[in-house]
């Protein structure tokens, strides 16, 4: 058995710009004269965690803010935007999930965003991708440490009873790739529209579209099967 582990919600559908816009609306709602343009936001995505991002930005400006409250507002705005956004699964995602299931693989969604954000995204994408497609969904409530800590992947591996090398992860940001690799899971970088300019040195490869056969080749189980076939030949 093997498993496909999709990382942040933007590996499933590209929500990166919706997230940035929600941050800016939240700042206005809290009376902050902040505005993150795309260049600002792209630079910040080198690190994970929206609440930490807000707190760090406030410190850089010498301001004190309730980062948790601002982030909560941002999440609420984000979910409202999701409900009306013209979202679709990213290239190859739905087909790759189906192919994995057809080959007897388990499928996981391994994120450290809020459970409400995951639910809102999957409700919007249904029936192309839904919560029923995943054997495990990891969210912020499941682990104490966000990525790049490997805790989310460790949780998923334990829940699925899978060895790291028999799985392959797909991540759209540097911290996510680092988390997967730290857990021993080979990882493919699948950058979103705001992380595509970054470097992913820890990734096995970088792609613009998911393909099950290519992902399958990265698991040690597939490599072992291939070696056995070559010996038989």
Features of the shown structure:
233 residues; 10 helices; Rossmann fold; 2 domains; single chain; alpha/beta; 9% strand; 6-stranded parallel beta sheet
Short description:
The chain is of the alpha/beta class and 233 residues long. It folds into 2 domains: 3-14 and 88-232, Rossmann fold, CATH 3.40.50; 16-84, Putative phosphatase, domain 2 (DNA polymerase, domain 1, Orthogonal Bundle). The chain contains 10 helices and 6 strands.
Describe what you observe in this structure:
The protein is α/β, with parallel strands linked by helices. It has two domains: 3-14 and 88-232, HAD superfamily/HAD-like (Rossmann fold, 3-Layer(aba) Sandwich), CATH 3.40.50.1000; 16-84, Putative phosphatase, domain 2 (DNA polymerase, domain 1). It has ten helices and six strands; from the N terminus they run βαααααβαβαβαββαα. The protein has helices spanning 16-29, 38-44, 50-60, 67-84, 93-102, 115-125, 151-160, 174-182, 212-216, 220-232, and strands at 3-6, 106-110, 136-138, 167-171, 187-189, 205-206. Strand 2, helix 6 (115-125) and strand 3 form a beta-alpha-beta unit. The longest helix is centred in the first third of the chain and has 18 residues, at 67-84. It is globular.
């Amino acid at each position: 058995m093997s498993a496909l582990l999709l990382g942040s919600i933007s590996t499933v559908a590209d929500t990166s710009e919706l997230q940035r816009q929600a941050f800016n609306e939240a700042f206005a709602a809290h009376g902050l004269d902040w505005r993150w343009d795309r260049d600002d936001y792209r630079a910040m995505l080198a690190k994970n965690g929206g609440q930490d991002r807000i707190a760090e930005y406030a410190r850089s400006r010498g301001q004190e803010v309730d980062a948790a409250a601002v982030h909560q507002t941002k999440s609420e705005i984000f979910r409202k935007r999701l409900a009306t956004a013209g979202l679709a699964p990213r290239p190859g995602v739905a087909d790759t999930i189906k192919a994995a299931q057809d080959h007897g693989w388990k499928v996981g969604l391994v994120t450290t965003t809020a459970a409400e954000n995951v639910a809102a995204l999957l409700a919007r994408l249904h029936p192309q991708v839904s919560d029923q497609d995943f054997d495990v969904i990891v969210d912020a409530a499941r682990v104490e440490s966000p990525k790049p800590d490997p805790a989310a992947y460790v949780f998923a591996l334990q829940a699925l009873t899978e060895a790291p090398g028999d799985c392959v992860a797909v991540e759209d940001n540097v911290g996510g790739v680092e988390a997967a690799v730290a857990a021993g899971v080979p990882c493919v970088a699948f950058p979103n529209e705001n992380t595509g300019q970054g470097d992913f040195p820890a990734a096995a490869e970088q792609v613009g579209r998911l393909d099950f056969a290519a992902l399958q080749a990265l698991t040690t189980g597939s490599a072992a099967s291939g070696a056995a076939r070559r010996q038989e030949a």
